[in-house]
Amino acid sequence: DAEITQSPRHKITETGRQVTLACHQTWNHNNMFWYRQDLGHGLRLIHYSYGVHDTNKGEVSDGYSVSRSNTEDLPLTLESAASSQTSVYFCASDPRTDTQYFGPGTRLTVL
Amino acid sequence: SQKIEQNSEALNIQEGKTATLTCNYTNYSPAYLQWYRQDPGRGPVFLLLIRENEKEKRKERLKVTFDTTLKQSLFHITASQPADSATYLCAFLGGYQKVTFGTGTKLQVIP
Fold first, then answer.
1. What is d(CA A105, CA A102) in angstroms, rounded to the nearest whole number?
2. pLDDT averaged over consecutive 10-residue blocks of chain A (111 residues)?
3. In chain B, positions 1-40, which contact chain A (CB-CB < 8 Å)?
C-alpha cells in the first residue's frame, strides 16, 4: 500500500548541530509539506513544495531548509539546532485535492 | 491573517451522547473547512471537508456544519463511543493547498 513515512521517529541532539529529518511518500504526490506541532500552537507550516526543485517558506521557516530532488522525498534540515526547535515534526503530502495525508511524526529534542 | 480558534479545554461526554465541537474563524470565510482526527503519537487523519456554499456534510456518525454568518463550523459525533476519544482539529484550506490548523479540541468519551 502507498504510504508516507518519516525517520527517525525520535531524535535527541545538541544545540548547534545540524539535523536532517526524512520524509518519504510512495503516492507520487506533487505537493509535500512540513509542519511542527507544539502545545498551544497547533500545527504550523514550516516549508512546502509543489514539485521537484520547488520549495517555499511557510509561517515558521527560520532556521529550517528543505530540498526536493525527486517526487518521493522532502528532507527537512535544521541548520544549527536550537532548544526552541524541540517539537514534534509532521510531514504531509496531497495529490492536489482537498485532503492532506500525514506521516507518523518525528519527536525531536534539542538539548 | 486568517485565524482558526478551537476550544482548548477538553470535552468530556458520556458514551451514546452527541459530541459537538466548535471551530471559529476570523476575517474572511474560507472556501473550505476541514476536520481531522489526531490520536496520541500519530499524525492527523482527514475526516470531512465542507465548502463555503454547503450548509451541512455527513459521513456515517459524523456531521459538519458551516455558518458563514457566525464564522463558525460545528462538528458533531452522534452516538459517541470510547473509540471516538481523540483530539479533533479544524483547518482552513487557503490558496495553493496551504492549510492553517486550529489548536484542536480533545474529546474524551466516558463509558
1. 8
2. 90 97 95 93 92 93 97 97 97 85 96 96
3. 4, 8, 32, 34
